[in-house]
Amino acid sequence: MKIKAAVLNQMGAATPYAQSKPLGIEEVDLDDPGHGEALVRIGAAGLCHSDLSVIDGNRPRPTPMVLGHEAAGIVEKLGPGVDDLKVGDHVVMVFVPSCGHCLPCAEGRPALCEPGAASNGAGTLLSGERRLHRNGAQVHHHLGVSAFAEYATVSRRSLVKIDKELPLDEAALFGCAVLTGVGAVINREGVGWFERCGDRSRRRWLEFAPGGGGGRRTANRRGRPLG
C-alpha cells in the first residue's frame, strides 16, 4: 500500500533544521504484515531525543529510514501466526522487540533482547525483513517501528495491547517517555510504585506526568499525602 512517511535520507544535516530539512514527507510503499507481524494505523506519535540522535548522527543508523518509535495506534491487519490480537485492537509500540527466547528474555529482561537489539541496529523488523520500499529500493525501519507515517507494519513482539478508553496521544508516551522514565526510577533508584510511610495519611506515591517532556521529566516525581 502507498503511505506518506517522514523519511531521513542522510544523517548529519546542518542546523538549523528548519533550513536544511533533514526529514522529507514522501510517498513510500508498505508491505502487508508477514508471519508474526501486524499492520497498525498510527494514531499518535511523539518526537523523542532518540529520533534527533539519528538525525544528527550521534546514533548512527542505516539510511534511508522512516523515523519514529514512540507511538500508539489501531490494528488494521494481522499476519499469519498472530492469534492474540484482533483487528480494531488499540496498541502501544515498543522500541525494543523481545524475541522471548534469548538469555535476557528468559531472565525476564526483554528490554535487553539480543535479536531485538541486532534488528534495531540493522534497521529491520525482528524477523530481519524490511516492509518499507521506495522506488523499488528498501527503506529501513527505526527501532522496529517507523511511526512517523500513516501506517506501520511491525512485529507482534513490538506491540502491547491497551484499553481502548486510553486516548492514543497519551498512550503513545508509554512507548518510550513513560517507559524509560519509570524504569529509571524503579530500577535505578529502587523506588516502588508508592512508598508507605506509616498510616494512610502519610502514604506517598510517585507521580508520573505524561506529556511532560519525555523520559527525563517523566522521572521527576513528587510525594504527596493521600486523603
Cα end-to-end separation:
53 Å
Weakly predicted, low-confidence segments: 194-227
Number of helices: 7
Q: How much is the radius of gyration in Å? A: 19 Å
Mean pLDDT: 85
SSE succession: EHEEHEEEHHEEEEHHEEH
For CATH, the homologous superfamily of the largest domain is named as Medium-chain alcohol dehydrogenases, catalytic domain
Shape, per Cα inertia axes: globular
Number of strands: 12
CATH architectural group of the largest domain:
Alpha-Beta Complex
Strand order of the largest sheet: 1-2-7-8-4
> Structural class of the secondary elements?
alpha+beta
Task: Assign the CATH class of the largest domain.
Answer: Alpha Beta
CATH topology of the largest domain: Quinone Oxidoreductase, Chain A, domain 1
Report what the structure shows.
The chain folds into two domains: 2-168, Medium-chain alcohol dehydrogenases, catalytic domain (Quinone Oxidoreductase, Chain A, domain 1, Alpha-Beta Complex); 183-219, no CATH class. The protein has a five-stranded mixed β-barrel. It has a five-stranded antiparallel beta sheet with strand order 9-3-5-6-10. It has a two-stranded antiparallel sheet with strand order 11-12. The protein is built from seven helices and twelve strands. Residues 194-227 have low confidence and may be disordered. The termini are far apart. The longest helix is centred in the C-terminal third of the chain and has 12 residues, at 177-188. It has helices spanning 17-20, 49-55, 103-106, 114-122, 168-171, 177-188, 214-219, and strands at 2-8, 23-30, 37-46, 65-66, 70-78, 90-93, 132-134, 137-141, 151-155, 159-162, 194-195, 204-205.
